[in-house]
Amino acid sequence: MIGIAKTGSGKTAAFIWPILVHIMDQKELEPGEGPIAIIVCPTRELCQQIHAECKRFGKAYSLRSVAVYGGGSMWEQAKALQEGAEIVVCTPEVELLLSGSDKWNWLTRRLVEFTSTGSVLIFVTKKANSEELATNLTQEGYSLGLLHGDMDQSERNKVISDFKKKNLPVLVATDVAARGLDIPSIRTVVNYDVARDIDTHTHRIGRTGRAGEKGVAYTLLTSKDTSFAGDLVRNLEGANQAVPKELMDLAMQVG
Question: Which of 142, 185, 208, 234 has its CA 20 to 30 A from that of 251?
């Protein structure tokens, strides 16, 4: 659910109460399970604010909430996640780059580090882009799977199975193909191409940090991504947060 309303009008309570009702309908978490709900917000301050509300409302039901955001103690956040939580409140981890070639350089510089911590899911927008990126990474020596909407179901099942078993450390996928993927070993999501809309973006980054594990999502923006930059700016402004100059400059190029 995406809710838009004035400050102080009860947005937080409006989505926390249905979350609590849903959680209370589930069986109690076993060690290594959870979270049941993930709340993604645009800034650290908003993340802390929502986390405080989750703790306040959830206390009566002995439900645990963990806040995960950049700038906090990674050790403390990881420890809190390992101890288990029904709710995780987190921020989406954004990289502003100059061009498509910068995206490629950014990815190849970090991919070894990403795969050393767990499985990596890379999102691209179009089938042709997914095939091109998969081919280029294969030529660089990476072992990976490819998932897009034109593959038949048996091909898709084989790739997903290999990725789940960790036979393939990297999966390059389009939104259509990756809808609903629930793979606990995914530690990193890279939005190599930005999503078509904020809803799809939220779904993508929710593929990591599952089953109570730690996860990081990166979104790579270039000068072509003016409309998506506008969405991010609106998110930041709606939370009364400072907008980085580079991001604002990019958003102002719309139209």
Answer: 208
